[in-house]
């Protein structure tokens, strides 16, 4: 009889241990199920985002295709064409709702899509710095003027030129070999990484602020291109030619709004008479475009930037980049 209290205490302790184990196992199962639901929701959102952004890219390709068909006989690209009109942010919750068609838009996730098409040839192509064994003096002056206009640190142009020449040594090697009639030689891979775009100029030693200042005015395309005078900002036009200041470039920008340039020589009416316009460095049509699509889902925004080359009626996607951002709701 004296051992019964101890036995009851041991039984109670055993029961408590069993209950604790069961609760722990149950909590673990609930947590695993919760995580599985979260992963499934994230995968579904990622798949939806991919298809929506792919649709935006297809929309851009269709717009550029129709523009190419209309301009087949006389290719002219300017900011008054449909491709240059950005797509304002539109709510897509109705299309993403999982309920039936009678459900309200509040039942689905908050999804908003916006986008734009930008002429990549409205910027100065840094590829022009790689077209020979030596950097052409004119191209060097163009980059120096651009760096000065955006208040970049002194020596920025030299850093870009030296970095690009080191990253793309085969361009100079091919040019010198072609001039001498000798076959090209293998190029060492010991140089710096080759930047694929302006964002990656940080590999050459530029800081983020300098890159942000230069971004609206320079681009790095796969091949040499002319600057489209119908779409280029005044800073690029002023830097492109010797003897052109911002005031003259602004006259061209204002004049093309009323009447887009139909040929390169039309720009002479707005620029000083001493300016020489090389048709190989300036144009009124474009082949490269940057398509940007932005999808906002709740507090996150997914941005996709694609580089498209328009080759006749063929739209070739050369590069694609996605940026996932967490929006700050506290900002206005």
UniProtKB/TrEMBL annotation:
Keyword Membrane assigned: yes
Keyword Transport attached: yes
Residue ranges of domain T2SS protein K second SAM-like in the record: 227-275
Subcellular location: Cell inner membrane
Residue span(s) of domain T2SS protein K first SAM-like: 122-223
One biological process term in Gene Ontology: protein secretion
A Gene Ontology term for the protein's cellular component: plasma membrane
InterPro entries registered for this protein in UniProt: GspK, GspK_central_sf, Pilin-like, T2SSK_SAM-like_1st, T2SSK_SAM-like_2nd
Predominant cellular place of this UniProt entry's protein: membrane
Residues that span the membrane, as ranges: 12-31
Keywords assigned by UniProt, alphabetized: Cell inner membrane, Cell membrane, Membrane, Protein transport, Transmembrane, Transmembrane helix, Transport
Superkingdom per UniProt: Bacteria
Pfam families, A to Z: T2SSK, T2SSK_1st
NCBIfam families for the chain: T2SS_GspK (NF037980)
Family: Belongs to the GSP K family.
PANTHER family: TYPE II SECRETION SYSTEM PROTEIN K (PTHR38831), TYPE II SECRETION SYSTEM PROTEIN K-RELATED (PTHR38831:SF1)
Protein name (record): Type II secretion system protein K
